[in-house]
Amino acid sequence: MLTWAFWHALRHPPARNPLFRRAYTAPEQPIPWYIGCVQGFGILLFLPILAFAGLIYSIGWSVGIANLIGKERVRGTFDLLSLCPSGPLGMSWAIATGYLYHHRTFKNITSPGNVFIRVMLAGSLIALVDLQALLAPGVDWTILLWTLLSRLAAAAVALYIDQVQSLVLGALVGMVMPGIARERVNAQLYAFAAYIGAQLATYFVTIMVGFYLIPLLFDRLSLAGIGADAVIVLLRLALFFGTRELLIRLLWRRLVEQLNPDPGEIRTLLRAHVGGFPRY
Question: How many CA atoms are closer than 13 Å to the CA of 172, on its beta-carbon side?
Fold first, then answer.
């Protein structure tokens, strides 16, 4: 699956590539006003930004990557840099990962401890939602305990999937949009709109199919009980993952069409770079 291939590549960036080093050590860029508005709104919703940090921050990162690559295109240096041994794909990936690792927030939210804290936060919220039902008289504790545990497990898996795929999606959007919009400002706007649109489409499909159509189908088939609930949870997770995986594949296909990399470049990227992350 492309999601895990790109996630592995993000976790092992081309740290020795000069373009990675340049993006990694570049001074902070001012973000467009609309990115500040979206992230500011997320900060107002304090708990959601903790639980879905990858989704929120990837908005700005996708725009920033599009800005850097778009700047190379405007300067006329993109084609020249594409002659490097890593090729246009490796060059674009080096810029994208260098930009991501330039931000300490990226390294923080991908750390295991940070992920664990956010999963526990989401689990606590779910427990609070079910607290009133747990304290109701005559409650079937076995069913409620199973429901609570299954929701906790599903929330943990969904949060991890959301973080991994949001970061991969943000990087790919930032790499694709400068090839569609030649003007740097337009590339930033396209990246912003494409990323938001992809995330909204994912959640719309998941909510409509996973939380409306699938339960309705199970009711029509008279399927109920703990086993049916477990199947519904698994179908929702598969739908959530599969919808964004499809979008990632579509973006990857568009990127390959734009850059026309040779098979060696593709193999190098998808098997990721090893050798560790340098200290500057």
Answer: 29
Burial class (CB in 10 A: 0-12, 13-18, 19+), 137: exposed
In this predicted structure, what is the pLDDT of residue 136?
61
| Domain boundary assignment for the chain | 2-270
**Torsion sign across C-alpha atoms 111, 112, 118, 122:** positive
What is the token pair recorded at 268?
């190098």
Q: Which of 75, 84, 101 is nearest to 9 (CA)?
A: 101
CA–CA distances in Å: residue 102 to residues 15, 27, 96, 97, 249: 12, 9, 10, 8, 26
- Beta strands (DSSP E) in 208-262 are none
Neighbours of 11 (CB within 10 A): 14
Residue whose entry in the numeric block shows the structure tokens 């607290």: 131
pLDDT tens-digit readout, 159-173: 888 888 999 999 999
Other CB atoms within 10 Å distance of the CB of residue 20: 26
State mean pLDDT over 69-82. 85
The pTM for the full model equals 0.82
Q: Cα–Cα distance between 234 and 236 in angstroms, integer?
A: 5
Task: Give the per-residue pLDDT at 46.
Answer: 46
The three-class DSSP label of residue 159 is helix
* Cα angle value 49/204/252 (rounded, 5°): 85
pLDDT tens sequence across 137-156: 666 677 777 777 777 788 77
Residues 218, 221, 222, 224: what is their CA dihedral angle, to the nearest 10 degrees? -30
pLDDT given for residue 274 in this prediction: 41
Burial of 130 (0-12, 13-18, 19+ CB in 10 A): middle
Residues 6 or more apart whose CB falls under 8 angstroms from that of 279 comprise: none
